[in-house]
Amino acid sequence: MKITQNILYAAAWIQALIGTVGSLFFSEVLGYPPCILCWYQRIALYPLVLILAVAILKNDKKAYQYVLPLTLIGTLISLYQNLLYYKLIPENIQPCQAGISCTTKYIEWFGFITIPLLALLAFIFIDVLMIVAWKMTNKNQQ
Question: What's the 3-state SS for 77-111?
Fold first, then answer.
């Protein structure tokens, strides 16, 4: 099976949808309140469901141009939160001084899979898909 940009965009859309539904499940069903960094990551993730759906429907080969900036921002925020969570950054420089702590442990599957790690992996997965789509576009234009 040949990998096309539409397949890459569809995989990214599925990941964005899973991330969106998952974050809403954690907060609305399980009652885990999101911290400020989680809100910023949601701002980067939630629009991707619509953006990627439109890109797929319109057969937009250059959707990576407007998806990648959002996912890279989400990746940076998520990376920062993971560094805080795993105590690689001192807590005195964290933005979560008021409200919900950005290091609260709600889940820890298999002893290491946390909500911040799930978010980071989702953003990285979409980043990789968009970079591959970008490279495919550049290769096809040569």
Answer: HHHHHHHHHCCCCCHHHCCCCCCCCCCCCCCCECC
